[in-house]
Here is the input.
Amino acid sequence: MFKEISKHPSDIAESAVEYLKSVEVSEKTKRLYIDVLYLFLESLLSDPSAVIENDDGEYLLSHNWEDYYGGAISNFIDWWLPRKVIGSDTLQARAPGILRKWIKWCYKHNYFDEEHYEDFIDSLPRGKSKEVKCLQKAGDLLYLLHTPDPGAWMTGDEDRIVSIDHHKEPEEWDEGYMKIVRFEKYFAYLENEEGTERGPVMLSKELVNVLKVGYVMNVSIGRFGKYWKVLESGNVYAEDTIL
Here is the structure.
């Protein structure tokens, strides 16, 4: 993986290699550090203006630290990593802390100025790892809403539970990235990408306890009478990540 990182003609790659050489941690943790920094470089390659093509047809990162601000890091943590890395909760949860240490090391070794440093650090506030874990848990709980055992997820005020026949077609249907605009007990009102409000959407007590207004859910929902139900789901994203 060191070879894959060092091939990029960018001081970001250079700093990654030098930092990884300096880190004194267990082999298992070192592997995690390498993966996070490698994936961060991969996320930057999605911008065609930031890359050059070598003689072998590989696209390499040519932009340097000075070409980026905090948005590149928050985009990686909040958007790119949850979409690209599936089934590695530990990597996602540890990524903010690893990047924060790397950024501090880079500043200390003069890879960028104070203005860049402050903006990078602002994109990695303390508690970011906790938020990532919260979003992961929300995604897992969201998935449980449309598993084969629909009765297992709803707890709490059982007389408010609305029974839905899974064999029925929904009267109305919508899908995409939807922002949570408010809650009413164990129901949510969502705003889709066109700005249309949908709701009330049935959730669970546990899910509502970890969600926040402003979070964005990738869902397919259907309306059955007065209520909407989650039919399919993807990830849950932090506020202002997408919409």
Remarks:
- The radius of gyration is 21 Å.
